[in-house]
């Protein structure tokens, strides 16, 4: 199955109680269609006491089943907690986005998106130069305008 269609048939389930297991999720979501896989990510810290991180993923056989599960289960209650059910998003690589160990401007797509063209850079430098040469006093250059009427010749 292609990753894109697999992602469309996977739902994110958040706000899970620590007592929720993969069997619990299977029982809660099986009415909406054939379930292919259930994933409950483990805590990153090895000393954590919780069996999972408070969210999970349920992958259905068909994308229509996933949409049906989202429509019916989002904001419902499971083990006394209101759960969030939404379309799963693709996982970011470790060197992407917030929390990465790579500077934002060193990431692959950032420079292409935020780079300034040479023409824009030149125009900005010209505007700065023009602003530097502008008179600092707004009244400068207005000498002799204190007399009303036409200028005598």
UniProtKB/TrEMBL annotation:
Keyword tags: RNA-binding
Alphabetized Gene3D superfamilies for the sequence: 3.30.70.330
SUPFAM superfamilies recorded: RNA-binding domain, RBD (SSF54928)
Domain RRM: 9-90
Segments for region (Disordered): 121-153
GO molecular function: RNA binding
InterPro entries to which the protein is assigned, alphabetical: Nucleotide-bd_a/b_plait_sf (IPR012677), PPIE_RRM (IPR034168), RBD_domain_sf (IPR035979), RRM_dom (IPR000504)
Keyword RNA-binding: yes
Name this polypeptide is given: RRM domain-containing protein
Organism of derivation: Aplosporella prunicola CBS 121167
């Amino acid at each position: 199955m292609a990753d894109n269609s697999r992602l469309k048939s996977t739902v994110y389930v958040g706000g899970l109680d620590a007592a929720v297991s993969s069997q619990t999720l299977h029982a809660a979501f099986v009415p909406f269609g054939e379930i292919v896989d259930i994933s409950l990510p483990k805590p990153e810290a090895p000393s954590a006491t919780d069996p999972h991180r408070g969210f999970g993923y349920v992958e259905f056989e068909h994308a229509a089943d996933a949409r049906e599960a989202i429509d019916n289960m989002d904001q419902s209650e499971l083990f006394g907690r209101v759960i969030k059910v939404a379309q799963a998003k693709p996982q970011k690589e470790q060197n992407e986005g917030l929390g990465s160990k790579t500077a934002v401007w060193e990431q692959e797509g950032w420079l292409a998106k935020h780079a300034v063209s040479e023409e824009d850079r030149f125009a900005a430098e010209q505007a700065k130069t023009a602003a530097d040469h502008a008179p600092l006093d707004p009244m400068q250059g207005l000498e002799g305008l204190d007399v009303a009427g036409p200028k005598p010749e």
